[in-house]
Amino acid sequence: MTLSPLAACAGPGSAPGVGAGSGAAAGSGITLALNRSLVSLDNKLNQFDAAVTVQRGVRQALTFIDPKLTVQHVLAERFELTAPTEWTVKLRDGVRYSDGSPVTVEDVATALRMYQKVPGSFLAGLFPEWPTVTPVDAATFKLVTKHPVPTLDYLMANILITPAAANKPEELQGGVGSGPYVVTAANRGTGEYTLQVNDKYWGPAPAIKTVQVRFLPEEANRVVALRSGEVDVIDAISPDAISQLSGLGDVEVQQVPSTRITQLFYNFRKPAGHPLADPRVREALSYAINGPALIKDVFADSVSPARGVVADTLTGAVQTGEYVYDPQKAKQMLDAAGVKDLKIKIIWETGEFANDTSVMEAVVEMLKAVGVQAELQQFQPGGDISKWRQGRGGDWDVLGNGYPGPTGLALTPLQGMFAGTKEKEATRDTYQGYVFPKIAALLEKASQETDKAVRESVLATAQKEIWNTWPCMWAFVPKTVIARRKRVENVLLSPTNSYELASVRLNG
Amino acid sequence: MTATTVGPADGSGSRDTAASPGRPSAVTAKDLARSAAVRRRKSARLKIWVGSVGVALVVLPVALANLLPIPGPDEQSLSLRRLPPLTGGHLFGTDQLGRDLLSRVLHGGQVSLTVGVLAIIVSGVIGLIAGAAAGFFGGWVDTVVSRLLEAQLSLPLLLMLLLVVALFGPSIPVITFVIAFAQWPEVARLTRSLVLVEREKPYVAAARVLGLHRVTTLLRHVLPNVVKQASLVILLLLAQAVLLESALSYLGAGPQRPFATWGRIIADGQDYITTSWWLVTLPGLVIVLLVVGVNLLGDGLRDRARRRKGPQTEGKVSRA
Questions:
Q1: Residue B168 near chain A (CB below 8 Å)
Q2: How far is B42 from chain A (nearest CA, A)?
């Protein structure tokens, strides 16, 4: 394999000990069991955290967010802010796809167009504006924006590059990528994929030759499969499963602080006059939730209480307040707001977070204690919750949902959740109808501010303003947890709940 | 040989022969006690008793759950989660949210049994009507009903139920209806075959000669003669209906939370199977007790009905 010196120390594959000669168990494979179905190996619509690991095994971006939440260059050799509204990018020498064709500037331009065109794009909410590609030479181009986007290098870590001719404004089910693995078998229906090492990979060869991906939605099944050695790595583990697995000699549980925040988020599409359109009512309901008990007894202290509107592990996050349990105050505030016999509907998708059903059933009883009747509606994975979230499926009041921090920056989830505008709401592209022009303006200002200190100051103000609107009934920050068999080594788990497949090794 | 004069094989007349002091017989009371007919009768009686006890052990507490001195099914105490059975006043222990498991099982049984009973009533009525019409009228009615039966029996049952629940949403009426829909073929098939036999009997011809309308003949004279046997099958379907409801709940297609149903209690408990065995085992045992009880009771009643079928049928013919 011909590698430039720089390629050998590029982001993915740059993990210590990983290299062409480090294949301790060459010819061996591992099996990953995911709690959600990996419906594609592309992230245009489907970027739940654990999927990122597999998706990036096949397709790569210009940059990569490492476990320390800093930007590493992958397909880009150089990614620099050369003017307030202009980034200059140079593609790494020798980067190529699994079919041997080189990664080109046109591929990047096409990828950006496709991510913009896809309806309901997850990433659309993260980008304050989409950059345009201006080629400079065969390997160099400029990413130009109308307004400054000083965090574009972080954001571009989410844009996976595919050959221009094969890219479409939809989720790609297979095809060619530049990652260390190629897809040799895929079954979208069952969520099962087989990845084989990419013989033409431009970086250091992965140690693991074959990666099987399976979808095991039931935690008990994942735990039993791991214990029996049927699978090697499982994700989304509840505290009870952690306690079951912790004492086993051949299994190791790995935890890191997460960039994700899990919320009971209000529906902001309620008409004026509806109780939930009143921030006093939203605040009152938050006092009904016994967060400390949920964290201690249901989560066994494996999550931490949210003290802000995004995970405090993110760069730029500030503490804005705490969720306090005070049912008496909740009743008083509801009475003061003239709300009696309130009925609400809580919706969520199974597996959205660990112990989801226990939390929801506990919340129903907590709300009942303050005179609020809550109805639960649980959606199975693959169901039409997305239609409901857009207000097109049915009416609901509170959504149980997790929001990731895929760039490691607080700005990204803040932008994605709270920068909604009337224009975005017209196409239902806001986060549960959250539209506050003042907050959107602050976030826009922060997203365009090139001075880091000023940016973080504006961001802090925005977060306090958001907190004062009481967007959540309750929120917590989970830990990123995986369990693996001890023969699987060097899993560099990131707070974004992903790891580089190319770094993983087998012992024995 | 005198032994050949002993009554019918079902044993219904054997007592007279052996017990009559004036008629000599080589068959002793001991022989009779060991006969297959008597064994079957005893077996039927035993099945009825054991089945009744099993069903009563489950159904009575379930029916009286609201009156028993136990906590509410949703009353939670997070600090008392997963207490083992017989701890802290909880006979079955507590679940993952500190709720009394016995209360959850009993109130869950109310949902499961209500769905099961409603489902078999609906499926019984549909099956009786469709099967009786097919058997009695024959012709195109029989063809349509029989083809529908065959079509439905060829479908994978659970997958079809999951599909319907996915389409119409997991509410109690929908689940009741889909289970009823799933079960009507068995009742209809049996009713059709019973009616086919009945319609050839002289009392039906007599009714026709007397000028009774065919529908009247069917409703007033034929159906009463088959409804008892058909209702035993319907009783047996109760166990299947409860199992189907539990299976749907287990697979996440049951009524929405926080309704406790047996399938959901087991599904929720399976995450803790290695640390809290009672969360799965005890609700599972309750289901087993009910299903085995219903099956034994149904079997026993069917066996008894078979023995009495002859004389009863004659009686109804004479009334006709």
A1: no
A2: 45
Give chain B's radius of gyration (CA, Å). Answer: 25
Nearest chain B residue to A222, by CA:
B271
Q: Are B121 and B237 in contact (CB under 8 A)?
A: no
A315 touches chain B (CB under 8 A): no
pLDDT above 70 as % of chain A: 93
Q: Which of B264, B262, B243 is nearest to B253 (CA)?
A: B264
Alpha-carbon torsion B21, B24, B28, B31, what sign? negative
Cβ within 8 Å of residue A246, ≥6 positions away: A253
Q: Kindly report, residue by residue over A10-51, the tens digit of the pLDDT.
A: 334 333 333 333 333 334 799 999 988 887 788 877 666 668
DSSP type of residue A484: E
Question: Is A241's Cβ below 8 Å from some Cβ in B?
Answer: yes
Interface check A288 vs B, CB under 8 A: no
Interatomic CA distance for residues A282 and A199, integer angstroms? 55
Which pTM was predicted? Answer: 0.77
What are B80-139's pLDDT values in tens digits?
989 999 998 899 999 989 999 999 999 999 988 998 899 999 999 999 999 999 999 999
Burial grade of A119 (CB within 10 A; 0-12, 13-18, 19 or more): exposed
Contacts of A291 in chain B (CB under 8 A): none
Specify whether the CB–CB gap between A507 and A35 falls below 8 A: no
Question: What is the CB neighbour count within 10 angstroms for residue B16?
Answer: 11
Nearest beta carbon to residue A365 from set B76, B252, B256: B76
pLDDT at position B20, please?
54
Nearest by CB: B256 against A238, A298, A376: A376
List the one residue out of A261, A306, A272, A268 whose CA is nearest residue A286.
A306
